Hints:
By secondary structure, the chain is of the alpha+beta class. Helix content is 48%, strand content 29%. The protein has one domain.
Amino acid sequence: MLKGMGLAFAIVGIILLLISGSTYRNTNRFIRDSRHAMGRVIRFERKMSNSNNRGKYLFAPVIEFEIESGEKVQFVSSSASTDPGDKIGDKVDVLYDPRAPQSATINTFWSLWFLPLFLGVLGTLFTIIGAILFALFLKETRSQRKLHA
């Protein structure tokens, strides 16, 4: 049982680490290829919370910014909370891909790096737990061999 659980945890951990590496690479590429613009919060979009906070809403800022051609673009931030730190009219630094400006993001550490960091930590924990369980299985197997020898 320890062997199977250890292998399962290790495999899931390695998959999470691979996905983390991929999201890290994609985030680096996005930062390298993106343009900066100064945006401003124009409103908040209300979203229902997926957690156990029944009846609670999350608020995601809607940002408007101007691209190099002078065209105004709006996007809804992927970061939402029950108490948004920004207020309508606040200025925010925006990163956007000039080929797809609607897929912009607010230039903050958490907006850019939360997913690769979260997946990396989770993948590392799963891999370590898998290795420990597998090591316990090996230790148990060796001790059983000594008893039967």
